[in-house]
Amino acid sequence: MDHNVEGKAVSNGISPPDFELPFPDGPETVTENTLKLVELTPDPRHKFIAKNLITHLHQFISEMSITTEEWMYAIQFLTRVGQKSTPLRQEFILLSDTLGVSALVDAINNPPANGALRAVCLGPSSLKMHPMLRTVIRSPRRGGDYMYVEGRVLSMDGTPIAGARIETWETDSHGLYDNQYAVRDKPDCRGRLHSDEDGRYGYRAVVPVAYPVPSDGPVGEMLLTLGRHNMRPNHLHLSIEAPGFKKLVTALYPEGDKYLRSDAVFGVKESLVVKLQDVDDDAEARRRGFPRGGPFKLLQFDIIMVPKA
After folding, report:
1. Model confidence, pTM
2. What are phi and psi of 151, to 5 degrees?
3. Phi/psi of residue 302, each to 5°?
4. Residue 10 falls inside a structural domain
5. Structural domain contains residue 280
6. CATH number of the domain to which 151 belongs
7. 137: pLDDT confidence band, cut at 50, 70 and 90?
8. Which residues pair with 155 in a beta bridge?
9. pLDDT tens-digit series, residues 36-84
């Protein structure tokens, strides 16, 4: 049925329920009526989620004695979150991240699995990748200290995984992702490569730096109100896919960052904290493709994936 007839308000075609609800003259009746209508939901999972969501939401409002002004502020806050979102910036994901919801959903759906690499949330700054040229994601325009990342992609039993697609991205030395610049003619500080026949991978990058999540929107205002900083510890994003294995989205966090234990989005897991080695060998730097030579940081890390079976 067409419910968008021009010039006329049209119902969605669903008839009234075959039972009568009492008039909602009191708070308890409002909740009871809403839950009775939830029982009409055809899909069992949808019904289960809606019933519990409404129960907890109404309980929260009743226990807190939320005022009309407070509820209108909440509605206006969420409206501004939506208005701040763009194809390159997802304020709703940022809200979910900073409230710990993204990390909670991730932890529930990705429990530890016998030494496999832990997953983390994708984050609001992931974008469509581009083929990596000469295994480098470091931008010569953005500066920063040299870093070489290498390791192997392995199954849980130690078998090398050849041809695994690795997508990786990070901020530049200024703490900004490429999608945060007003002028973005091409992807920067992000790219794609594949593991070789022995499961090995390696690429040139830049040492990541700590950076603030965007603070010029409603989520930034919320963090100030709660007395929380908006900083993320330095990290390198990775997304790995291989036939027969579960897709893995994760990040590596160099040790020593002062924000590791108070990450604004609760993303750091202990097993993902890594050590960077200092390599002061000009010849080795040039062999790895760093044109200026000189010292660089070496990050060695094996990626352990979980078979779909």
Report:
1. 0.83
2. 170, -160
3. -90, 135
4. no
5. yes
6. 2.60.130.10
7. low
8. 305
9. 999 999 999 999 999 999 999 999 999 999 999 999 999 999 999 999 9
